[in-house]
Design a protein that fits this description.
two-stranded antiparallel sheet, mainly alpha, 9 helices
Length: 198
Amino acid sequence: MQNEVGEAAEPGGQGRGGSSTMPHKRNPIGCTVTLAAANRTPGLVASFLSGMIQEHERGVGGWQAEWPTVSALVQCTGAAAASMAEVIAGLTIDKEKMRANIDATRGVIFAERAMILLGKAIGRNQAHHLLEEATRQSATQGRRLTDVLAAMPEVTKHLDQKAIQALDAPEQYLGAAEALRQRLLAVEKNNSGKQEKE
């Protein structure tokens, strides 16, 4: 919800985080409710745990304190789940802004990937020192990290140009995310089908 990031936004509309003085503003109400519930939870859990002390024949005070505590925890969980369901249902994603934010780093955000690949060939410590120098040059010279790495003989001896140029492709970082997404969608579709039959 920060303009300078601008990658994702909660749904807007009546009663959804507008401002009386700034018409353009859209506060993240769902996330606010969820985080407020999460902030209360550790204290409630502590109250519950301290009430579990087993006095003689479960003396008075402790177990009575559990009732409102458990109730409050259930309310927090319900409020957080309901708020996030609303957020997810209306979430908007700006892929172009995500790409622009990544590009603004000139690829330095992918230095860890380069270090891991180089570390396999030259050891983690040496790779770390090389990448420290490369990221420093990228920042001071305003160059892409891949261009800096491509000009370093210590790097090109172990990584070819194709591997270096692929370092700052965000798609390389997705891992199993797409497979997991497809699996979740299949489960949801299967569950929806069962409910319709019932």
